[in-house]
Amino acid sequence: MKPIAKSSKLASVSYDIRGPVLDKARQMEEEGQKIIKLNIGNTAVFGLTPPDEIVQDMIRNLGDAGGYTDSKGLFAPRKAVVHYMQQKGVKGVTVDDVYLGNGASELIQMSINALVNDGDEILIPAPDFPLYTAVVGLSGGRPVHYRCDEGAGWLPDLADIESKITDRTRGIMVCNPNNPTGALYPNDLLLGIIELARRHQLVIFADEIYDKTLYDGNVHTAMASLADDVLFITFNGLSKNYRSCGYRAGWMVVSGEKRHARDYIEGLNMLASLRLCSNTPGQLAIQTALGGYQSIDDLVAPTGRLCRQRDLAYELLTQIPGVSVVKPKAALYMFPRLDPQMYPIADDQQFAYELLADEKVLIVQGTGFNWPEHDHFRLVFLPNVDDLREAIGRIERFLGGYRRRHSS
């Protein structure tokens, strides 16, 4: 029989957070081996569960959640998102500007699909959350990566962004707080990106899913609060701030210069209708989450679990010879660098395989986030302090052996 091949549109698509190294880890688990997973921000598996009031509210309303909703979502949670955007200083948002989705990921795909024609370009940070690059390619567009500067705390390089704008550039993706680096962008940088978007008439896609996961008293600024003459598409949701990954409850907000975007917004409405609606139980969690006690504040406080785990991971990693880390200001990740002189890694996916095979620790290699060099990896600091200490101890042991094997 003739082989059934996958679509050619998938040729350049990868998602190494759930890629080949994870497949190998699953195989090892099936063989009875225990793996410490530092590869994905899935809070529930680390005992970080949704606030009880969200769970109870969903349970109470589940009997009424069997039907389709409006394609954009139920009124009450969308209104709660409007109020949240007002609290963040974003003006001019109405219920009609809010779209609920099966997580922010679905809405990111929707927003790109509605905009990009074949050959159009979207500017994407490097390192990136790999979904951005994948969906631009699937839409027929060309992902163009702008460099974030590790020496400047992983902040985007404005000059590099501007140098990569062409007559095919349609938009710029901004991930703030950032995954995978944990960077938090200051207002002057955000204003610089907005000025580039203004000058070149670009859409700004602002992924702000970690906007409450902030350490050391840092404050997040909603990018859309800084201007009203540029079109902003802002993404957020419950997955991280409310430890509700599996509920797939996210939202997208259109704001700013909407008058000249009527045709694009019509496309968003069309795509929202095509998927009928997002899951209703997940929608039911949003209003309670946004209006209730913000337990994330306890977790990121100096004595809170997430802050203590971040501090421990940073301390242990930076004690390893040849390992340097920019301390995250936000989110759940760090993106350590391995000194190429001490760790001459030719293939960082193979490096991740070897770490998994030797020490039963699963990480994601830096190239999986479209970082061009083979000298970084992403680590999730969600495990409790005992497991984190064990995991980084194994990484240290592996790196010690790597140095000895590759010493000149």
State the gist of this model.
This protein is of the alpha/beta class.
Structure characterization notes:
The chain is α/β, with parallel strands linked by helices and 408 residues long. It has 13 helices and 15 strands. The strands form 4 sheets. The protein has an 8-stranded mixed β-sheet. It has a 3-stranded antiparallel β-sheet with strand order 11-15-14. It holds the Pfam family Aminotran_1_2. Belongs to the class-I pyridoxal-phosphate-dependent aminotransferase family. This is alanine transaminase. Keywords: Aminotransferase, Pyridoxal phosphate, Transferase.
List keywords for this structure.
aminotransferase; pyridoxal phosphate; EC 2.6.1.2; 408 residues; Ala_Aminotransferase; eight-stranded mixed β-sheet; single chain; three-stranded antiparallel β-sheet; alpha/beta; 13 helices; Aminotransferase_I/II_large
The low-confidence parts are none
How much strand content do the residues show? 15-25%
Question: Could you say which overall geometry the principal axes of the C-alpha atoms support?
Answer: globular
Order of helices and strands: HEHHEHEHEEHEHEEEHHHHEEEHEEEH
Contiguous helical run count: 13
Radius of gyration: 21 Å
- Helical coverage, percent range: 25-40%
Biggest sheet descriptor: 8 strands, mixed
- By helix and strand content, what is the structural category? alpha/beta
What is the count of β-strands?
15
How confident overall, as mean pLDDT? 94
Spatial strand arrangement across the major sheet = 2-9-8-7-6-3-4-5
Distance between the termini: 53 Å
Family: Belongs to the class-I pyridoxal-phosphate-dependent aminotransferase family.
EC number: 2.6.1.2
Cofactor: pyridoxal 5'-phosphate
GO molecular function: transaminase activity
